[in-house]
Design a protein that fits this description.
397 residues, alpha/beta, five-stranded parallel β-sheet, globular
Length: 397
């Protein structure tokens, strides 16, 4: 197993501190603000405005209770109204900052570009890095708002290693798991820089989701009755999102190159997908890979989706401190996957290969299913400390 890194949780805000809280209208962020207020902190609420109405539902539904809550969607106006009302009732200063253009360029365009390149993006990771912990805080700074800490309702913990990383003297702020491992959100924030994390705290780190709802109901918070939100636009928006360009149909083939059918455009397919393929087969078939250069969707049987290793690039390391030698760790290849043992080594770029930054090879102790380029490979210690992470570039079958 990997070398253990001992660490200590950083202090939470105390009475008298000025705390900026990112509010969405949901129960997690609302309770976070209330707990800090009750603690004696000066709380300032802020909500990022993302929705410009340019992406529309194909099938509309005017009954809000039947529409999934999302961080990006037409429910934003009502969410902001909920936040305003909560802040007013609790004597909390409140601001809304407009980051629509930044979100469109850094998240929506990234999402579309990646899918059109045959990759599977994770927009929530980029939103956290570039918008919630980026553009929104920059907008707050331009307003002249000063604060000691920035807090959100994420289920994660900010810690500091007890000794320098990898033989250096660097002891950067790092992300570790929260008490409620079933709601772990460390994967979403692995790209946020240690410099930003120095002033970030997650007050829900030590309590469970069940306890959050119990506390929220006890405090009579309206947010306790809201539906759990999803983290990005739902499938009902996808047609509209990709309507800026005409899709290019192409062949669906098997691993031997036999044509099985036609696809509507590679942006509508992801690695591991089974449903909606529109091909007839005597056994279940799944998306094995996507060949963007030749506009092909490649299908295979389930056991042919396994991989022994991957190459990832565009890495981020806590405090920008890279390991100087190969190391053992645990890796998550997608949010829903379990961390599995792996070995990480620098990868020697081959002819005609291009990477962003230094590429690293991650070899699994056991083969993994449906590894998807574009997703993040996040490295953990055995006790839940994020050691680094990058974007999956290449899969080694």
């Amino acid at each position: 197993m990997e070398k253990s890194i001992s660490f200590t949780a950083l202090d939470m805000p105390k009475a008298g501190d000025t705390v900026l809280v990112g509010l969405s209208g949901g129960v997690d962020s609302t309770l976070t603000a209330l707990l800090l207020k009750e603690k004696g902190c000066r709380v300032i609420g802020v909500t990022m405005s993302l929705w410009d109405g340019s992406v529309v539902k194909i099938k509309t539904d005017t009954n809000r209770t039947k529409i999934k809550e999302a961080c990006y969607g037409p429910g934003e106006e009502e969410n902001i109204a909920d936040c305003k009302r909560f802040c007013s009732e609790n004597g909390i200063e409140y601001y809304v900052v407009d980051v629509k253009n930044e979100y469109k360029q850094m998240v929506l365009e990234y999402f579309k570009t990646e899918y059109r390149n045959g990759r599977t993006p994770n927009p929530c990771i980029m939103c956290n890095k570039k918008i919630k912990f980026g553009a929104m805080l920059e907008a707050v700074e331009k307003l002249g708002i000063k604060y000691d800490y920035f807090c959100t309702g994420h289920y994660a913990r900010i810690v500091r290693p007890d000794s320098g990383l990898y033989g250096t003297e660097s002891r950067p702020a790092m992300v570790s798991g929260a008490t409620d491992i079933t709601k772990d959100q460390t994967y979403f924030v692995y790209r946020v820089s240690s410099k930003i994390l120095e002033k970030v705290r997650f007050p829900l780190a030590g309590i469970t989701k069940k306890e959050v709802f119990e506390l929220a109901k006890k405090a009579n918070l309206d947010a306790a009755n809201r539906e759990e939100s999803q983290d990005f636009v739902g499938e009902e928006y996808r047609e509209s999102l990709f309507s800026d360009k005409e899709s290019v149909p192409g062949d669906i083939i098997d691993l031997d190159g036999h044509v099985l059918g036609k696809h509507r455009g590679i942006e509508y397919y992801t690695i591991g997908q089974r449903r909606g393929l529109g091909v007839a087969s005597s056994q279940p078939m799944y998306v094995h890979s996507i060949d963007a250069k030749n506009n092909l969707v490649v299908l295979a049987k389930n056991d042919e989706l396994n991989s022994r290793a991957l190459i990832a690039d565009d890495f981020v390391w806590p405090g920008d401190v890279e390991p100087g030698e190969p190391m053992e760790a645990l890796v998550k290849i997608r949010l829903a996957s379990k961390p599995v043992p792996c070995r990480i080594t620098r990868y020697d770029t081959q002819e005609n290969e291009e990477f962003t930054g230094t590429p690293w090879k991650i070899e699994f102790a056991q083969e993994q299913r449906a590894v998807a380029p574009g997703q993040s490979a996040v490295l953990y210690s055995s006790d839940g400390l994020i050691l680094g992470g990058g974007i999956i570039s290449k899969v080694l079958k």
